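Budget justification aside, the reviewers requested a transparent look at the raw inputs and outputs of the sequence design task funded under Objective 1. We therefore reproduce one unedited record. The lines immediately below are the structure tokens for a 108-residue chain.
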């Protein structure tokens, strides 16, 4: 716990590749992830983002909005994938061919 019985957490959101926004939030003990999101600048910066529908994680591990936060937690808000990773890999493999990708690639 930080001094005075408050929790200091970071809320991070990446609206685009290589762009990360971060807000420091001070919360009362027993606060949830949803309360941390609401207390950050995220709702004002992205009003069209539905906080009840976003995928979140704490230190890279998936978390629920009802999860209680602890001091120094790093809450990450994930944006939805635009392309299925499996499909993207299949297409990349198809374009590069068998000899240029994966285990069969020729190493210089």
């Amino acid at each position: 716990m930080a001094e005075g019985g408050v929790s200091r957490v970071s809320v991070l959101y990446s609206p685009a590749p290589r762009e990360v926004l971060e807000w420091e939030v001070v919360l009362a003990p027993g606060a949830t992830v949803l309360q941390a999101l609401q207390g950050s600048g995220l709702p004002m910066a992205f009003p069209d983002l539905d906080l009840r529908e976003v995928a979140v994680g704490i230190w890279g591990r998936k978390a629920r909005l009802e999860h209680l936060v602890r001091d120094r937690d790093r809450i990450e808000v994930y944006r939805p994938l635009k392309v299925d990773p499996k499909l993207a890999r299949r297409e990349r493999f198809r374009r590069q061919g068998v000899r240029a990708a994966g285990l069969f690639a020729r190493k210089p």
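The chain has a mean pLDDT of 87. The beta strands are 7-16, 19-27, 55-58, 61-63, 74-78. Computational costs for records of this kind are itemized in the attached budget.
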